[in-house]
Specification:
The protein is mostly beta strands and about 120 residues long. It is about 0% helix and about 50% strand. The protein contains no helices and eleven strands. The strands form two sheets. Strands 2, 4, 5, 6, 9, 10 and 11 form a seven-stranded mixed sheet that branches. A hairpin with a 4-residue loop joins strand 7 and strand 8. The termini are far apart.
Length: about 120
């Protein structure tokens, strides 16, 4: 069992930056691949970024590639999402999720554990 708690969301102007954190409970955090997803009002939850259990492989949605960076600190049971050059279309609730097994990093149905989400609002 893994419990996830996101933090770091807020209101920022376009072009600004935010760093999201996701703190995980449980001793097996390092065995999970981790992902960040987001959901805007009236839209489906979509993949943003993912990272392998070791941190050696990262994955990004085309819409955020070059602007967002995912990282993890297994010793701290924490995964991060650094978001730069934010745009109004990045406005959404951001969720972190843990994937214990195989399957595509991009597929939200492969993730077993989810946080409660943190709101990110980018003003123009």
């Amino acid at each position: 069992q893994v419990q996830l708690v996101e933090s770091g969301g807020g209101l920022v102007q376009a072009g600004g930056s935010l760093r999201l954190s996701c703190a995980a409970s449980g001793r097996t955090f390092s065995s999970y691949a981790m992902g960040w997803f987001r959901q805007a009002p009236g839209k489906e939850r979509e993949f943003v970024a993912g990272i392998s259990w070791s941190g050696g492989s990262t994955y990004y949605a085309n819409s955020v590639k070059g602007r967002f960076t995912i990282s993890r600190a297994n010793a701290k049971n924490t995964v991060y999402l650094q978001m730069n050059s934010l745009k109004p279309e990045d406005t959404a609730v951001y969720y972190c999720a843990a994937k214990p097994g195989g399957g595509s990093m991009y597929d939200k149905t492969k993730y077993d554990y989810w946080g409660q989400g943190t709101q990110v609002t980018v003003s123009s």
